[in-house]
Design brief:
The chain is an alpha+beta fold. It contains one helix and eight strands; from the N terminus they run H-E-E-E-E-E-E-E-E. The mean pLDDT is about 85.
Amino acid sequence: MECKTIYTERGRRGFTLVEVLIALVVGMIVLAGVLSLTTFMVRSFAGLLNYADLEQQSRSALSRITEEVRRAQTLVSYEVDSVEFTGDDGINFEYRYVPDSERLIRISGGSQEVLLNDCEELEFNIYQRNAVSNSFDLYVASSPSTAKLFSVRWRCVKDVLGNILNTEISQSASIVIRNKQ
């Protein structure tokens, strides 16, 4: 019996085990990089969405508070976490911070409206008029009847993907009570 050796062309043979393992490792490194980049992009996008939501909510609340306080006739009562005014229509309205639920609510005529959510800190202050002309010093009002300037400051925080990343916004404003007698 005669044995013949058959030679195959080099281009037709399959991959060796070493080549397959190297290709698998390179593929896994590329996949890990793509996954890491995707995770980073998702977290960044979620953070931007939360920041935009907080910014819109904060601007809307501040705009509403500014408009109503400027038109208020009198400051009825003051606490660090709540203030009550008499509006230009003669109806009382109150802004109250509820720390347990992290909300700023507006109460008027028995109805409540949430102005801010996720608010970790909020503080109201009242001040008198400037005592000296051309001076920007503020003097704390001894009572609501002597207050001419109303100040509000808050800090809102939203968690992104649990506690991995926080989005935070702070806002403060000093508002003159224009219609005060």
